[in-house]
């Protein structure tokens, strides 16, 4: 079986960026996340992730 190295660059560490990074990493991708502020976005201010 041929294997490919998959690399992801996630820009933004909010709820969507964290979810994308988690799923990509679980599937074996090499993930790098870039965030200018705190990872998690505003969710850390609200004690939950709004839906």
Structure, explained:
The chain has a two-stranded parallel sheet with strand order 1-2. The model has no long low-confidence stretch (mean pLDDT 79). It has helices spanning 15-26, 43-46; strands spanning 7-11, 30-34. The chain is elongated, with a radius of gyration of 13 Å. With 51 residues, it is α+β, with helices and mostly antiparallel strands. The protein has 2 helices and 2 strands, in the order E-H-E-H. The protein has one domain (7-44).
Oligomer: single chain
Strand order of the largest sheet: 1-2
Report the helical percentage.
25-40%
Large-scale geometry:
elongated
Structural class: alpha+beta
Radius of gyration, whole Å: 13 Å
Query: How many domains make up the coordinates?
Result: 1
- Note the beta-strand portion: 15-25%
Q: Kindly state the mean pLDDT as a whole number? A: 79
Largest sheet: 2 strands, parallel
| Secondary-structure element series | EHEH
């Amino acid at each position: 079986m041929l294997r490919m190295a998959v690399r992801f660059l996630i820009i933004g560490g909010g709820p969507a960026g964290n979810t994308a990074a988690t799923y990509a990493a679980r599937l074996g991708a090499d993930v790098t996340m870039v965030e200018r502020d705190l990872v998690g976005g505003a969710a850390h201010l609200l004690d939950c992730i709004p839906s």
